[in-house]
Design a protein that fits this description.
Helix content: 25-40%
Radius of gyration: 17 Å
Structural class: alpha/beta
Length: 270
Amino acid sequence: MNHLRVTSLASGSSGNALLVQADGGALLIDCGLPQRRIERHLAHAGLCPADLTAILLTHEHGDHTLSAGPLARRHALPIVANRATTDALGGAIAGAELRTLPVGATAELGPFQVRSFAVPHDAAAPVGYCIRAGAWCVGLAIDLGSWDDTVVAGLRDADLVVIEANHDREKLRVAPYDWAVKQRIFGPRGHLDNVDAGALLARLGADGRRRTAWLAHLSERANSPMLALNIVGNVLAMATVACFDLHALPRSAPLTWESDRLLRQLELFG
């Protein structure tokens, strides 16, 4: 049984990066931080950049792709994404090795089985990922304005679910953004709010299986970790779903989940 370790390196509009490690491999999901910060985070995890199996990109926005091209070129790493995303990035990833993973397709990357699925967001062809290593699975959908059966199916098998809980609706209404920006965020291809994130988790949790859920991409001006946890928790309580261990991701401090720790908890509590 492979050990799976997932570390959030950064989460939010100022940068996103997620490190997934298993026996014999490591994946960087998004690369929205400066290259030196990525390299420092990898060193803290006991890795050199060359140890990465690949860099996976969810979509082309800069807070997810900032240093993907330079990191890939410098350390001869493959970038994995769908064709629309790599086309949208253009010269930013020129010279890097590109591997195309069509939306909805599955690829074997080292010890990982990676499957992408479409999410509603205002990018060329944004995706979430379901990543398996042995008996364990992490699912992420971190920029999306709404959710549907495709998103639910993509996340259903995950032991760790990483989903966007970007904003509180009322806080966003009074936030110091232009109305056009607010309309984009509120829209079905914008960003998921706390209530809708809770509803998505409630749908996933209807099967009663114990999971960990990370709330990601929290807005600095229109949300807070405590508010996101309270609202999502209330939505789950109203749906009588009590199987999630909920955490709000810090903007820049690492947070780690390990399959071995979850296995011990499951053995203790049945």
